[in-house]
Each structure stands twice: as structure tokens, then as C-alpha cells.
Known about the structure:
The protein is mainly β and 492 residues long. The protein is built from two helices and 44 strands. It folds into two domains: 35-145, Immunoglobulin-like, CATH 2.60.40.1710; 148-469. The radius of gyration is 30 Å and the shape is elongated.
Amino acid sequence: MKYIFKTIGLTIITVLIILSCKDEELIKDKNTYLYFSTDTVYFDTILTTLGSVTKRFKIYNTYQQPIKISELYLGGGTSSFYRLNVDGVKGDNHNNIIIPGNDSIYVFVEVTIDPLNENNPLVVKDSVVCITNSNFQDVKLIAYGQDVKLFRNEIIETQTWTSEKPYLIVENVAIDSSEVLTIDPGTIIYLNNYSSLLVWGRLEARGTLEDPILFTSARFDGDYENSAGQWGTIFIHPGSTDNLLEYVVIKNANAGLQVGFPDLKTKSSIELRNCMILNSASLGIYSFGGNIDAYNTIIADCGMIALGLFMGGTYNFFHCTVSNISAYYPGYYQGGYKSRAYPSLYFSNKYNWVDLDDDFRIVDAVLERDLNLNIRNSIIYGTRTEEIKYDSVTSAAFIYKFDHCLLKNHADSLDYRDAGHFSAVILNEHPNFINDSIARGMYDFQLDTLSPAQDSGSMEIIQGIPFLEHDFLGNSRITDGYPDLGAYERYD
Length: 492
């Protein structure tokens, strides 16, 4: 009896093995084809010498039996700008890939474009070719390449950057002391991860409304286009003075603009006209005892503080728009969204500094400098209850004035009845921008029809500053005699 059961068991196992082997027979019919998740993989504009994000597509076997890809390779061969990875295996040429029945594999694609010596983007094409049972199938690869002028960890002397082709900063570029970097209208400056522009000498960037100058991240394909914190900052070094930014857009930095450093010996100065600082991971502008004059300037969507004015200084913000409307901002390093825990504006005449003495011992120091802050005909708004905070010491001057402004601050930290510091303030009313967040598409900080900021400015503030007679878009502020608050004048 045991022998009979043993014989029956062996017979069943043998039958299963035979059936299993039959199921595993490869499809050899020339009329069978693979299915692809896409017919074309597109890459946004890729800067020369920098790699792209990784794109992927899937290859499906829709049959019950396994199928073999005898060859999978890049059509461009060894001269291709693209690179492949098939199910975790790197290489641009793969053979004898088995896809089980009703299964699939991933194909990952990257592209790096060598300098092309062309000023305009060029289309770089290739294809991933699959040969199965003598059938040729392919997936098209399309990328747009842009040649750039590369600066890598350099100290530069006096020169002019033009709009002929974009500039790429890798690591840092420093303008040497006593040297001047002039940037022409329409110039684009890309900065790689952690890279900054260090101004030891002087920066003069004069864009126009039609051709603004752009500082932005070097990665702008896919989700990178609007991800904050992809590069460092523009740093105005202590002692660097008479810097000018006009019609300049600073986007996706960790901190848009740093003016000065905790140093009581020297001061830094800069003037901003018709500028935008957008989507900074930490601060839009932060200054240590610097001198800043800003006109018709917009600072929006900062992960921490839009305006951080530490250790005193002299500041004039006229017809500026500060909008931290988004309660959450897209964080690059955080890999998602992060809640903003700081006010839009912080100002102080002191700074708590930790340093080392001559014996390398940690010393806590309070650095003090007189503060003189004037914010006029401007808007400071955000989602937090308290969007304006300050701190001060009595041993240094602490002068500030909000004159004809729309402000958001429900807390009791500021006494808006104090005529010495506040005049004609609109408190806690929504400015009604047309579009105040990149999450809803392109920014537009012009005023909507119901905005309380309309006709709420003072004409006296404009007098003596000729370029303030027109708003960010060049519209007249003096035609009706009642300028609007912020960087834009409302026109129907």
C-alpha cells in the first residue's frame, strides 16, 4: 500500500513538473509584441554638463507565457547623451531579458548633455530599442539642451554678463574686492545645489520690465521647477556697498538675499528696484546691520521669515509687497511640505552671537547697532496670527515707522494706536491679490477689485523718488492722486 501511494505521489509531481515546464516555454511567435507605458519620454531643458532627473517607463508582457527581449539598447549607441538602467542593472545595452507572463520591467533613463556651443536650446533625440522575436519596437527619448557659461568655485574680476547664453554657478562664485560684476537685461543665472554668489566687491544688475534678470535653480525639470532651497543665496559681504538690483527675480533659493554678517566694524548696502524674491526655503531677505532701500519689490512664499532685519541697520521699504499667504511651502530638502513657524517680518537692534575667544572658548555676545526702519505704502500679509515681531535693547536706537500700510497682526505685541510708530494702518484685512501662491499657478500680486489696499497710499511718500511714480508694471501712480499700497497700482 505504501508503494502504491508513493507511486501515485511521484506521478503527480512528474505531471506538475511537465505542466510547469510547458507554462514556462517562451513565446516565439513573431506576431507577439510588447506593450510600453509610453511611446515617448520627454525631458525639460537640461543644462550642459548637468545631469537630469531620472525618468522611467515600463515594459509589459501581456501574455500568459514568458517572453524574451533578445536585445534592449540605446539607438545612439556609445555616442548617446542618455544612460539606461534596466530593473536595477546599469548599462546601455542589455541582452536576453526574460519577462514572466503578465509581468513587467522598469527602464530608467537619464541624460547629460555636453556643451553644444549654441545659444538656443537644441533638441537631443534618441530611442530605446527592443528586439523581441525579430520584432523591433522603440520608445522615443527627447530632451532640450541649453549650453551655458560655467563658473565653478571662482573669484572673478570686473566683467559684464550678457544675455547671449545662461550662466551656471557650481559651488560658489565671488566678486573680488574693488571689482564690479555688471549683469545685462535678460541674463539668466542658474545656481547648482548649495551654490551662492558672494559679493565682496560690487554687483550691478540692471534688468528691465521686458527683460528681467533671473537667478534661479539649475534643476527645473519636473517637481524641481517650484521647489524651494535648491541653491544658497546672494551674499552682500560686509563692506560691500552701492550694490543695485533692478528688475531682478530671485527664485528657489535657500535664502534669497543676505546683506552683511554679524560684524560691527563694517556695513553693507544695496538698493532694490522692481525686484521679486520668490519661494525661498528660509528667508527672503536677511540683514545684519545693513543698509537696504527697496522700492516696488515683492517678497513671497518664504519658509521662515520674509524680512529678517537683525542687529540694527537702516531700512526703507516703499511700495513693497510681502506675501506669506501659503501656510505651507514646498520644501526641497524636506521632500514635502513644511509649516511656516515664523513671522513674515522680524526686526531688532541687536543680535545674539556665539563666538570663540582667543583661547577657543565659546563666548556669548550681544551685538548692537542703531535701527532705523521705515515701511511705507506697503503690504505685509500672511497666514499666521502674528506676522510682525521685534526685539530690542535700550542701549541702541530703535526707530521704526509703518506709514500707510496694510498689516496682518492679531497679537497684542504691537500697539497700533501709537502714532509715533504707526500711521494710517489697515489692520488684518485681506489684500485680495489676484493670485498669491505658486500652488495655484503663476504668481500675480496685482490687487483684485475688492482690495482694501486700493487708493490707500500717501502721495507725499512718493514725492522726491521719481521712479516710485510708476508701479512694478510701469503704470502711473499719480494719475488719480491716490496711490495703491504695495508694488502694483490697480487698473481695470
